[in-house]
Amino acid sequence: MATAQPTGARAPWYARTATTAGRPVVLALALAMCAPGEYQLARLAGWSDPWAYGMPAALSAYAGIAAVVAASRPKGARGRVSAILGAGLAIALALAAQIGAHLIEQGHMQGNQAWLIALISAVPPAVVGHLLHLAATPVPATTPATGQLTPRRFSQVEQTPAEAVPAGAPSSPVSAVPPRPAAAPHVPVAYSDPRCTVIRSLYAGGYRPSTSSMRDAIATAGLELRSDGFIRGTLRRLVEEAEPELRLLPEEPVRRLAAVGP
């Protein structure tokens, strides 16, 4: 009888390699294929070289920035709806630019129409205005209890004085593993992703959890596993944005990781 594969099993190395190495290659090829059409539209609207080369760069950068902002901002954050709309608009502009450029090149559409030239000319100022709007609406890192950012510094952590050693008592050997600092006070946070709750529980040990510890905890909880970059860059970042003092905890020691059994 065949053994069922566990939920969230790690993908084979060749699949991970193809995904990691393939995405930037595909992105670079797609941008290179889009550039000629966007360049021709810029020339059509009246820009001369080298300024016409800025149209592909502006549309590509705008789409990327808006998409990243839309994906990284949590629900209810300022600018998230605007970023989502901007990402959709950027994709629509890129699609329209490619379709329009090829229709004009093949003679199916007249390129000297006033409305088309006006629309193309409005792209750069619209991109600049929306990017400035996104930059002016950053996401504040707040705590749910007070709604204010209160970062903790190392200099503010109280240190417990060393216990007095009686005269003549033999000194104890120095431990190779430093004592664990006191864990940060845990203010319960209602996360929309249950994996964030699992990751937050790992901070109770007084350390900033490693990627392998977070992955093992998520797998043990029976939740969906994603890439290591998503676990570190998205899930752990959401936890530490809600409680910024968690970033000040030391990284999980290698000795402690090796001592953890199956």
Describe this structure in words.
Residues 161-175 have a biased composition (Low complexity). With 262 residues, the chain is mainly α. Helix 1 (13-45) packs across helix 3, helix 1 (13-45) packs across helix 4 (114-121) and helix 2 (54-72) packs antiparallel against helix 3. It has two domains: 13-135, no CATH class; 186-262, no CATH class. It starts with 12 loop residues before the first helix and ends with a helix. It has nine helices and no strands. The chain has helices at residues 13-45, 54-72, 80-105, 114-121, 123-135, 194-201, 211-220, 228-242, 254-259.
Gist?
It is built from 9 helices and no strands. By secondary structure, the protein is mostly helical. The protein is elongated and about 65 Å long.
Q: What labels describe this entry?
A:
single chain, 262 residues, mainly alpha, 2 domains, 0% strand, disordered C terminus
The structural domain count equals 2
Rounded to an integer in angstroms, the radius of gyration calculated over CA atoms is 26 Å
- Major sheet, described briefly? none
Q: Helical element count?
A: 9
Flag low-confidence runs. 1-7, 142-165, 257-262
- Principal-axes geometry comes out as elongated
Approximately how much beta-strand content do the residues carry? under 5%
N to C succession of SSEs: HHHHHHHHH
Distance between the termini: 25 Å
Helix content: 40-55%
Report the strand count: 0
Overall structural class, as computed from helix and strand content, comes to mainly alpha
In quaternary terms, these chains amount to single chain
The residue-averaged pLDDT reads 73
